[in-house]
Each structure stands twice: as C-alpha cells, then as structure tokens.
Amino acid sequence: MGRSVGVAAGQPIWQVGRECRQSAGHFPLNFVATTEKIWIRTNPGTKLAEMTINALVALESDEVGDGEAWSVVVKGTARVVESQTEIGTADLLHLDSWTKARKWTYVEITPVSVNGRRLVLGGEPERY
C-alpha cells in the first residue's frame, strides 16, 4: 500500500468516514494494516450497519509534529469477515480493542486508492 500507509500505520487512531442515505458519519477506530488489507474490529451498531448498506469507506489518519504535518486518506471497500477460517486468521493479527468492550466482528478493508500529503509548517508569508 506504499509509503503513505507505512507512515500512517504507526498511528494508533484512524477515522473511518461513511456516507449512508445522505447522512455522513465519522468514527474513530484502531486498526491493523497488512500488505494488502486494513483490518478493524467492531460491534453491531451504526458503523457496522452503514458498512453493510454501502461498502465504500474512506479512512483518514493525521499527525502534526515538530515543523511538519501529514495526512493519509485510504479509500476502499469494506467486507464483514464471516468464515471461521478468516476469523481465525484475523485473530492472529492481535487487533486489540482499546476499551473493555469485547468486539467480535472483524471488517476487512481493501484499499482502492491511497493518498498522502506531507506539509511543512510555518507562518503565513507576507501578503505583498
């Protein structure tokens, strides 16, 4: 998935953006990125329901550091992992929940596009 995801993969928080029936949503999540997929865990609720209605998702991760910032957006398709074999494989990724809630549903995201930007921070230049 390239250098952009490699940079963003070190970040503990990404957000998944969804649009469903003319209503957009943003949900924070933790994830694991492999060479070709991004994996999340969730429970039944708004995020999962919207992904089953419309599988197109956009993931975003941003970082602001000393003198620079970057942003990575991954667009792709989401699929709920259902077979026991795939669930067993996903369990090996050690995608741990941040909260004490048990999240039993894995979602596999297949990237279609990855875009990253690195910004050099500084003051605004003089106007004239």
Largest sheet: 7 strands, antiparallel
* CATH architecture assignment: Roll
Average residue-wise pLDDT: 78
Number of strands: 7
Give the low-pLDDT segments.
Answer: none
SSE series: HEEEEHEEHE
Q: Rounded to an integer, what's the Rg over CA atoms?
A: 16 Å
Widest sheet: strand ordering: 2-1-5-6-7-4-3
Number of helices: 3
Remind me, CATH topology? Answer: Pnp Oxidase, Chain A
Globular, elongated, flat, extended or rod-shaped: what is the shape?
elongated
Question: Mind telling me the CATH class?
Answer: Mainly Beta
The percent range for strand residues is over 45%
Any idea what the CATH superfamily is called? Answer: Electron Transport, Fmn-binding Protein, Chain A
Instruction: Assign the structural class, choosing from mainly alpha, mainly beta, alpha/beta, alpha+beta, or little secondary structure.
Output: alpha+beta
* Portion in helices: 10-25%
Q: What is the straight-line distance between the termini?
A: 42 Å
Q: How many discrete domains?
A: 1
